[in-house]
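Researcher: Please translate sequence to structure tokens.
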Amino acid sequence: MNPDVVTKPARNLCITHILPIRDALDILSGKWKIPIIVALCVHKRRFKELHRDVQGITAKMLSKELKELEVNKLVKRTVHDTSPVTVEYSITEYGHSLTPVINELRDWGLKHRDKIIYHPEEA
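Model: Translation complete:
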């Protein structure tokens, strides 16, 4: 059998693993979405508070990312009828389902930093 030929079951298994991962990466892509989610997991915030807490992000980028997170039902935008109008952002229950994923990313990132920065000679 030619090793370059991938069997149909192997191709299907690959697709069933790759497509959901691509979906998740499409939703969480970029360097800002996960930090925004992490900031909102602590407590709800107004736009300016979030802008201050997610250091380095521009207001325009924060606005764009919040809209995308809202479309994907990870973040909820609440407008309060005050003068002036107050807008708060909070993580949804669905957004909280990312907590284990974020924790695993953090743990892997800590191990990776240790390997690359503190033990670069180890393979």
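Researcher: Any highlights?
Model: The chain has one domain: 8-118.
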